[in-house]
Design brief:
It is built from 16 helices and 13 strands. The chain is α+β, with helices and mostly antiparallel strands and 421 residues long. It has two domains: 179 residues, Alpha-Beta Plaits (2-Layer Sandwich), CATH 3.30.70.270; 147 residues, DNA polymerase, Y-family, little finger domain (Dna Ligase, domain 1), CATH 3.30.1490. Strand 2 and strand 3 form a beta hairpin. Helix 4 packs across helix 5 and helix 15 runs antiparallel to helix 16. It is globular and about 70 Å long. The structure holds a DNA duplex (18 and 18 nucleotides).
DNA sequence: TCTGGGGTCCTAGGACCC
DNA sequence: TCTGGGGTCCTAGGACCC
């Protein structure tokens, strides 16, 4: 029997955060709006009871919501990030086996607490509420997927008092029989439709399905999900967060944008924000992608959603470099005559940033720096950017090459660089 | 006129190498 | 005359998550 896993999930997190700082909101229906006040992204229970849906466009429900006496807040992500850190800190006092899964959720390993799961979970709920003001629900199961089901059940059934334990098979069966396929973590509309088309219509049907057949038809992801529903863990706790693989900054415009200059201004702001994120994470980007989008909700208007990227000769976190590349891409993508509604910059190919690398992009324009940049560029051209990427770090004569270690060209490119430096 | 902003993982298929 | 096959890497696109 595997050790139980708990999923702790903050109730209506953004709405609860707003309530902590404004007690007048307590007990009232409240909604939190997205950027630009575009749509509803969080609702208190009272607001849910009024039938306000997740993701509802604000301009379509504004009038109705106001007549219902609902309190409205624009989102404040700095506040939510801060509250999240506090909640996670409290949880960390309960176990070292803590995986912070999202801004408002964490998985906890409960090995050693098998005999007092209920006490443990209820005292955890009480402590989080007491120390942060945020109400949480707890679901416990032998796998992450069942812990998710348990959490959902705890939230939907007031009688459970915020806690549902699905360790026994009968309890699992009962909980699964009360939900739909789409309620399971990892199943959304498309997969649910395909499953139903072959006769798997409920979570219990899915649990009984042959994992190998599921793998053949749907892939390894769904096979794991079936095994997890049966109580066989396929997803362990990830205790140390993996480094980010990409960073994205994008926004919808409040109104359609048509001029290149305006897009370029937006891109400047995004580049700066992206560079900040890079530096905060100690990362440098090896590639820059820019994308544009027209209004996808207006199929009657001409649609255009281009994107393109550019490899950077040296991985960097320098705002000016990102912006230069971004603008170059933007000029290539831009076509006049379209009404753009959204734009963004994506930075993939992230690698750890190092001090010398900082020196490389930040240092004065010395002949040494120029010749090194030139050499890196030449080597990159010779081998193709997919093979060789460079960052500098303060080893071996001041420069170290990082690149795809499995690449055939690694050794050659490395010796070329060393011979230059 | 007004419809969020981030992310991850997997797969298929092509290019290329030996 | 035999007309390979295993492996890596990359990209695009799909699907899903909060």
């Amino acid at each position: 029997m595997s050790a139980p896993i708990a999923l702790v999930d903050c109730n209506n997190f953004y709405a609860s955060c707003e309530r902590v700082f404004d007690p007048r909101l307590r007990g009232k229906p409240i909604v939190v709006l997205s950027n630009n006040d575009g749509c509803v992204i969080a609702r208190s229970n009272e607001a849910k009871a009024l039938g306000i849906a997740m993701g509802e466009p604000w301009h379509l429900c504004k009038e109705r919501i106001k007549t219902q006496g609902v309190m409205v807040r624009s989102s404040n992500y700095t506040l939510y990030g801060d509250m999240s850190a506090r909640v996670m800190e409290v949880l960390s006092h309960f176990t070292p086996l803590l995986e912070v899964y999202s801004i408002d959720e964490a998985f906890l390993g409960l090995a050693g607490f098998e005999n007092r799961l209920e006490d443990y979970a209820q005292s955890l709920r009480a402590k989080v509420q007491q120390w942060t003001g945020i109400p949480v629900s707890v679901g416990i199961g032998p796998t992450k997927t069942l812990a998710k089901v348990a959490n959902r059940t705890a939230k939907k059934t007031p009688a459970y008092n915020g806690l549902c334990i699905l360790i026994e098979k009968e309890a699992q069966t009962k909980a699964l029989s009360a939900i739909e396929l789409e309620d399971i973590w990892g199943i959304a509309r498309r997969t649910a439709e395909k499953l139903k088309a072959i006769g798997i219509k409920t979570p219990l049907d899915l649990r009984q399905a042959d994992p190998k057949a599921i793998r053949r038809n749907f892939g390894v992801v769904l096979e794991r999900l079936v095994l997890e529903l049966c109580g066989l863990p396929c997803h362990g706790l990830e205790l140390s967060p993996a480094p980010k693989q990409s960073i994205c900054v994008s926004r919808s415009f409040g109104r359609p944008v048509t001029r290149l200059e305006e897009l370029s201004e937006a891109l400047s702001a995004y580049s700066e924000r992206a560079a900040e994120k890079l530096r905060r994470n100690g990362l440098a980007a090896g590639y820059v992608t820019v994308f544009l989008q027209t209004n996808r909700f207006r199929p009657d208007q001409p649609q255009y959603s281009p994107s393109a990227g550019l490899a950077l000769p040296v991985a960097t976190a320098d705002t000016a470099t990102l912006l230069r590349s971004g603008n170059e891409i933007l000029r290539a993508l831009y076509k006049p005559g379209f009404r753009y509604k959204k734009a963004g910059i994506i930075l993939p190919d992230l690698i750890p940033q190092t001090e010398t690398q900082g020196a490389l992009w930040g240092s004065p324009d010395t002949p040494e720096r120029q010749s090194l940049l030139g050499a890196i560029d030449t080597i990159n051209r010779r081998h193709g950017r997919q093979t060789v990427r460079f960052a500098a770090s303060g080893v071996q004569r001041g420069w170290q090459m990082r690149c795809d270690q499995k690449s055939r060209n690694y050794t050659t490119a490395w010796s070329e660089l060393v011979s230059v430096t």
